Amino acid sequence: MLTPAFSAAPTPTVFIVNVIHARPGLQDEAFAIIQDVVRLASGKPGFLWSNLAKSTDGLTVVNIEAIADEGNVGEFFSDPVFVEKFRRLDEVSSSEFHTYRVTDLILPSLEQAS
Fold first, then answer.
1. Which parts of the chain sit beneath pLDDT 50?
2. Taking the model in full, what pTM does it have?
């Protein structure tokens, strides 16, 4: 279980950015599928959080997911139930995901905040 705590410096984090290009009229279905996938992943070790968003153009869904380590991707995809749920996206969309390691965090400057 993760416990929130203050840190003076950013902790390196691994992000998965999954861009889902839904077929016309199927954005809501693509969103529901990735929601189901992420809910399954949320119970697995290494999952930290996910932010799911629908574009205003009605065609794209994005999953920005924080995980503990790049190796968690392989662990998620070693679960046949996860793979089956993830493959359902192919029926309504094309998708791509990329893995990023973030080591820099830029927040608004104090001058902007006042």
1. none
2. 0.83
